[in-house]
Amino acid sequence: MGFKFWEWKAISYESKSNRFLVFLILLMFSTESLLFAVGSSTDVIIPKPQKFLPGKGKFLLTKQTRYFSDTALSKNAITYLQRQLKLNAGFILKGGKLSKDNTISFHYNPKKVKKSEAYRLHIGKKYIIVEAKDKAGFFYAVVSLMQLMDPVIWGQTGSSGNTKSWSIPSCTIEDYPRFKWRGVMLDSSRNFFSTFYVKKFIDRMAQHKLNRFHWHLTDDEGWRIEIKQYPLLAKIGARRGPGTKLPFSMYPAMRGPKNKLQSGYYTQDDIREIVAYAKARSIEILPEIDIPGHAKAAIVAYPKLLQDPKDKSCYRSVQKVSNNTINPGMESSYIFLENVISEVSRLFPFGYIHLGGDEIPKGAWKKSPAVHSLMQKKGLKNTREVQNYFFTRLDKILAKHQRKMIAWQEVTEGKPKLRQNDIFMAWKSTKSGKKLIRKHRNVIMTPVQYLYFDQQYTRSKKEPGHTWSTPVSTQKVYDFKAASSSYIRGVQACLWSETLLNEKIADYLAWPRILALSEVAWTEQKKRKWKDFQKRASEEGLKRLKIQDVHYRSVLPVR
Ligand code: ACM
Questions:
Q1: Does any ligand 1 atom lie closer than 6 A to the CB of residue 359?
Q2: Which of 1-15, 171-185, 464-478 has the lowest mean pLDDT?
Q3: Pocket flag, ligand 1, residue 429 (CB < 6 Å)
Q4: Nearest to 121 by CA among 189, 178, 174, 71
Q5: H or E stretch covering 181
Q6: Most buried pick, 41, 277, 283, 316, via CB within 10 A?
Q7: Closest Cα partner for 226 from 236, 213, 212, 214?
Q8: Where are the alpha helices (DSSP H) in 321-368?
Q9: How far is 54 from 171, CA to CA, in rounded Å?
Q10: What is the DSSP letter of 411?
């Protein structure tokens, strides 16, 4: 016949294909879901909404645009939008009457929006409608609205603050979170972070619909929260380096300069300010007071209260810190801890306090007469039962202060009698988390292999971060599949700070991995696809971070 193979193929298809092509085009324009499937410029939101229907045309937000609201629940959301517009457009979004002309209306609508933290957002050519039934829902609707605007809207300095009109593509979104707990932990102990940085960190979490800031405030290397009844915690426990009582371990920080003083703590005023800042962004703060291990800073400040003077035990933690564990045989330990919990619970309104419980060193308490006497009195057979006694008693103290307990998974190992509502963080592996579920424990999944953001992205020697576990690439984070169980409260990433010598390294290790985390936490599993996320993250997500001067890792590495 004289045709080459590919020519023959093209001709043979042509006869049936014309009609088929017309059919395909018709189908594409007749169903919105197919339009969505082929992708559109409006597909920019992170985390990906559960339902998204692109519309036609766009809304133009200008100085003349007004907002209307029938509920005080929308206040934080409106304030947030107004702040960013003031910074980046130079005008304030003013209030007006209910109208379908150039107006953004906020409506309380529990009939249409049934789930907590959920929202409906309709962007038409003439008006925008936001519906929700709680503060978080309104806030997240505004976050989505702003993600549909030019990334310049996220600027924090106002340096480009003169964009006069903002085009927002028409669409309808119905959205809700997969998990109630969508957290990130920041360790302020090993390296201290300024209140300014902590606020920026919280703000970026809020921009991605994350709602729990777990604040690791105490550890061997530093006690970072002012406690009025125990001023030496700040005076002694918050200073590490030459001339201080804490010249040990990762001193002053892993791979850091050896002659630098690492100091800092948050005053109670700082904390109140940060709590309010987070609340305005629908974020609850979970304070962690890590006990009885990881407590060297407190022990050095108050040795007589927290250690048995006759204790001859000599041990080291896995991080090589010597004798860092509070003594559970001393009554003074419980008085100290109750006083601390009392101040902490007055500062943090959230219903939970994290009491640590991880990595109690082998050999701790072994030669303490106070612990032996406690064991005899209470009929405790071994160290694990002493640990149970300690946490059972602390759980009761928390209850007295109307708080529930969160702790690392080790606390459950000895089967202490804790309340059913307490929650445990499964950090060792996904498997260990599933084991807790089988024991009917509430779990937050934080497996090191996927969600420890202090680990390097890759094995490269040039990468900052730890290497003691596996590398955690952004794709690895994205690939984390939390099992569906009513015992799983959610997921959380942990940013331990031994290697975080400055804020740039903290940013680098956090981003873009937090982008991936947000989608793991928010979006239903079946709606998540790495390639789709990768495109949105690299085209839009990183732009939003760049405009805020976040020092993110600039490529999204595959495994
Ligand atoms: C932990 O990583 N020690 C909770």
A1: yes
A2: 1-15
A3: no
A4: 174
A5: strand 181-187
A6: 283
A7: 236
A8: 331-347
A9: 4
A10: G
